[in-house]
Amino acid sequence: MDLVTTAGIILAVVVVCLAWFARERAVRTVGQAKEEADRLLHDARREADAYRKEAELAAKEQAHTLLQENERQSQERRDELESVERQLARRAQELTEQDREARRTEATLAERQQQLDERDGALAEERRRCDELIREQQQALQRVSGLTADEAKELVIRQIEQDARRDAANLVKRLEAEAREQAAEKARQIITQAIQRSAPEHTIETTVSVVDLPSDDLKGRIIGREGRNIRALEQATGVELIVDDTPGAIILSSFDPFRREVAKQAIERLIADGRIHPARIEEVVEKVKVEQEELALKEGEAAAFELGLFDMHPEIHRLMGKLKFRTSYGQNVLSHSKEVAYLAGIMAREVGLDAHTTIRGAFVHDIGKAIDRDLQGTHLTLGIDFLRQHGEKEAVVDAMAAHHMDIDWPSLESMLVQAADAISAARPGARRDILESYIKRLKQLESIADSFDGVSKAFALQAGREVRIMVESENVSDEEAVWLSKDIAKRVENELQYPGQIKVTVIRETRAVDYAR
Predict the structure, then answer these.
(1) What pLDDT was estimated at residue 396?
(2) What are the residues whose beta carbons fall under 8 Å from the beta carbon of 501, sequence distance 6 or more?
(3) Is the N or the C terminus of the chain less surrounded, counting Cβ atoms within 10 Å?
(4) Phi/psi zone of residue 227: left (φ > 0), alpha (ψ -120 to 50 degrees), beta?
(5) CA distance 316 to 328
(6) Fold of 206-300
(7) Nearest 5 degrees, angle CA 380-CA 288-CA 274?
(8) Is the pTM higher than 0.70?
């Protein structure tokens, strides 16, 4: 029992001690917390004071800055107002001066108006007196001439009209003469420039072709047994084969270059293949014909493309390509057509005409020559019908229709096509003869003219298409000059060979000479 009591007492004492310690500790903790709170409060007050002082300083600085800015703006505004006031004052002074000047001007105008009114009155009086004098003079003239005023006026008008007509006729005559001179000079310049800018090369083609043979032994194989191979070649190609003593070659003769080319290609392929017999000949010839037709189409397309003609019908390309195998007086017709197109296009641009239509018409002007050997009709009519059938415009057809002057020129473009065609054909060496024979023919032409009595000088002109003869007026009369031209033309016809025609012009000039002593 005592142990329990003792334990209870001890426990109570321990509890009381613990409670006391706890209280003391709490008191210390509260005191520390209070001290900390006081310290934090003091620090917060100090920081708040510092922030407040900084804010007051910043506010004062900002207020000072705003005050200075306001003062600056106010000063600027005062300066602007002062400037405006000075301008207004100056403007008011100017207006005052202008008003005084306007009043002076108004006074001057009023004075001048008064003077003008007085002058108008004087002029009216003078006009009235002049009218009276005119009426008196008219009456006097009517009494003297026996004509009324209207009749006299009509007479004067007729006289003036006659004078004006005479002056106008003289002016028109002078202008026509000047226009002809200028037109001739301009035409020469344009044609010369076109020829210089074109200047193509010319090659003269003949009516024969030569096929080279690797050896003369092949001549026998080409002829064949009893001549069957050569007959098959001639029948299939329409070309005459000349196998003579010429070493290493055979000659193909035909007026048609297309046929000659087909025959040449076929013989060269037969020689390379080695099989030469009638059946093989017919097969190769047909194949070469097809290939040459395709080549003609490509040549026509290339020529049209070179001239800037991109929308032509394929059949037109094909026929134009076939003209590569056609000649006219030895001149390749496709090359001639391209040259004519170049020349006509240059001249059309120079004179301001439709260059595209002119080039197109010039390019196809000889297209009928590709079919005139297969159909009835001239190459001109065949070409016109063919172009119309294949969609060419009438302007193009008209441009090529008169290139041989069979009809009147339907358009200005046709005149240029005809001129370009003549220029291309008349170039030295362009047609038929080689240059040496061409020069020889010109010399012969001049020598024939010089051989006649009374001829002082003779000149071959226009590529041998004209011979111009100067005669001695003392020895040849006007009537004799006429017969002289006929005699020379007759002798040229008998002694020379030439394409087309030659114009013989005899010029007789009379000169009167005297001396002042």
Answers:
(1) 87
(2) 465
(3) C
(4) left
(5) 19
(6) Ribosomal Protein S8; Chain: A, domain 1 (3.30.1370)
(7) 150
(8) no
Between β-strands 208-212 and 249-253, what pairing exists: parallel, antiparallel or unpaired?
antiparallel
The owner of tokens 């493309």 is 305
Closest CA to 299 of 210, 202, 370, 208: 370
Count the Cβ atoms, other than its own, within 10 Å of residue 385. Answer: 15
Q: What is the model's pLDDT at position 208?
A: 61
CA atoms within 13 A on the CB side of 248: 3
Q: How many CB atoms lie within 10 A of CB 376?
A: 7
* Bridge partner list, 327: 332
- Predicted confidence at residue 419, as pLDDT, reads 83
DSSP assignment of 296-322 equals HHHHHHHHHHHTT-----HHHHHHHHH
Distances (CA, A) of 33 to 30, 40, 485: 5, 10, 154
Q: What is the pLDDT of residue 374?
A: 66
Low-confidence ranges of the chain (pLDDT < 50): 196, 199, 201-205, 432-436
Q: Is 311 exposed, middle or buried (0-12, 13-18, 19+ CB in 10 A)?
A: exposed
CB burial of 35-58 (b: ≥16 within 10 Å; e: otherwise) equals eeeeeeeeeeeeeeeeeeeeeeee
Say how many residues make up the chain.
Answer: 517
CB 430 within 8 A of CB 469: no
Q: Are 333 and 321 in contact (CB under 8 A)?
A: no
Per the CB < 8 A criterion, the answer to whether 461 and 446 are in contact is no
To which H or E segment does residue 99 belong? helix 2-145
> What's the DSSP call for residue 434?
-
Which residue is it, tokens 């035409």? 187
Q: Contact 464/429 with Cβ under 8 angstroms?
A: no
* Domain covering 435-508, topology: GMP Synthetase; Chain A, domain 3 (3.30.300)
Query: What is the C-alpha to C-alpha distance for residues 277 and 177, in angstroms, rounded to an integer?
Result: 74
Closest to 244 measured CA to CA, from 271, 213, 265: 213
Cα(221)–Cα(277) distance, rounded to whole angstroms? Answer: 9
What Cα–Cα distance (Å) separates residue 395 from each residue in 70, 82, 190, 336, 475?
87, 83, 23, 21, 54
Cα-only R_g, the chain: 58
Quick one: tokens of 464?
A: 């041998």
Element (H, E) at 505: strand 503-508
The answer to whether the CB of 298 falls within 8 A of the CB of 324 is no
Question: What's residue 435's pLDDT?
Answer: 46
The token duo for 140 is: 């006097």
Lookup: tokens for 166: 């005479």
Residues 284 and 270 sit within 8 Å (Cβ to Cβ) = yes
Give the domain ranges of the chain: 206-300, 435-508
CA separation for the pair 145, 319 (Å, rounded) = 84
CA distance 498 to 462: 13
